[in-house]
Amino acid sequence: MNRRAFLKVTGLVAVAPLAEPFAPLAEPFARPVPAALPGGAALRIQQPGIYRLSGVVRLEAPIVEISGISNRQRITWSDHDSSEPHTASFVSYESYDEPGMRPDVRVHGGWLEALNLTLVE
User: Fold this and answer.
1) Among the four given CATH numbers 3.30.300, 1.25.40, 3.90.550, 2.60.120, the one describing domain 3-119
2) To bridge 86 with a disulfide, which of 42, 59, 78, 91 should be the other Cys (CB 3.0-4.6 Å)?
3) What is the pTM for the complete model shown?
4) Which of 58, 52, 67, 63 minimizes the C-alpha distance to 38?
5) What residues contact residue 110 under an 8 Å CB cut-off, 6+ apart?
């Protein structure tokens, strides 16, 4: 990594906690995305158990937040002015007690491109 990129990344990491108080102001402009398959069909839990929830998110803002999962995730990146699309993957393990439930994954600052659900236990 070159020095300039390193300084950009460390600067964003240092400034990210300062942006938290302003997050509620941005929520009306955020685009929450419900958990859905590319064909439009929503994912449903077939049987109770522990599931591995994995997905791919297209990054559109310098800070992208994935919520609606047990371990909320935040992705920060510095090359948001680039014309190339950037994506990131995430994994979370979720426990569902009843069949018919749906994962409620929400993405702020990007788009949910893919979501997979696999029964673990």
Assistant:
1) 2.60.120
2) 59
3) 0.59
4) 58
5) 57, 58, 59, 60, 61, 64, 75
